[in-house]
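Consider the following input, taken from an annotated entry for G-protein coupled receptor 143 (Eurystomus gularis).
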Amino acid sequence: MASPRLETYCCPNRDAATQLVMNFQPKVFCGVCIGSASVSLLLTILQLLPKKGQSPRKVPKASSSSTILLLISICDMLGGLGVIFRSSVWLGFPGFIANISVVNGTDVWPSAFCVGSAMWIQLLYSAGFWWLFCYAVDSYLVVRRSAGLSTIVLYHMMTWGLAVMLCVEGIALLYYPSLSSCENGLEHAIPHYITTYAPLLLVLVVNPILFRRTVSAVASLLKGRQGIYTENERRLGTEIQIRFFKIMLVFIICWSSNIINESLLFYLEMQPDINEMPLKNIRSAALITWIIMGVLNPMQGFLFTLAFYGWTGWRVDLKWRKREIPWESMSSSTVGENAYPSPVNYQGNAHDSKKITTTDSQQTDDAISMLSEGNTSGDDRLTRSSPIYQGW
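Applying the prediction step yields:
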């Protein structure tokens, strides 16, 4: 799981709320994290591997959207590996982890492991949040024909730069002036929590707005082809809208428990004594959401692949051959096959008008195909039947 409480736990003088959740059934909690992260990691890899029965075809040109989707999956897998490693050490070496609680201890390795593993998990999941935000931005810009593979460099700079900067800044403020004196007051913790949850809240607030604008732009783009909006175009727009809805649904399911848990723990921190009887229900809710976080946070990687590509099947093909990579859309190849229209014999202005129309149609095809990458075979049949993919 990914929570700023992990870094707070590295403080020997941690607050009572952090102590409450971290000491609640630690073996069970670590086992839940290992199980959830392991299942998610294996299923995510299975989703991305090429499958038997797929007909070999020419690899279509990669787009920025498909690259971003792959990078989101990679961040989730690396974050899951961090969860497995950290939880395994906690389970296998309880005496090693117990040294973190020793104030002014001479052994720095437990604290170094605690800080390093927590930063690794936080950085990777934070980078995944930024990549998801970039995906929403890129989808909108693609429809507006203002993005492409060239913009992926800017996305890399923004994603990794902001993820590293916020992570380092939050950790530095939390552990200032030293690890033994952190968590002496909320002035240390609050900036750390802000830098941790800023990208998460950005995705929750801004991505639905960008997705909604993208869907509206797609409808306008499809109508502009012939001045009409047929049933096929309407169904294609609905499929893209459903895909965006699935992405946001997975994100909300996996991370809403973090926001609820953090709100409850902050409320407990404000109380003089968190062990008072009137706070029993709040303590129970905080502990329940803490376990839920251990299950849902690592599962984001696999659930996102379902939202991105659908279920790709069990039959893995490990033979080395030049094939279509699984995260590329079948509809992309459809566009490639029909990108050039049949020869026409128009003369003069008629020929020029046909050329302009074909160029505009191909640009529209490219924009829509980037948004529909990774759709299932049913979506592919839809795009094949739509006039938007008939080459004209």
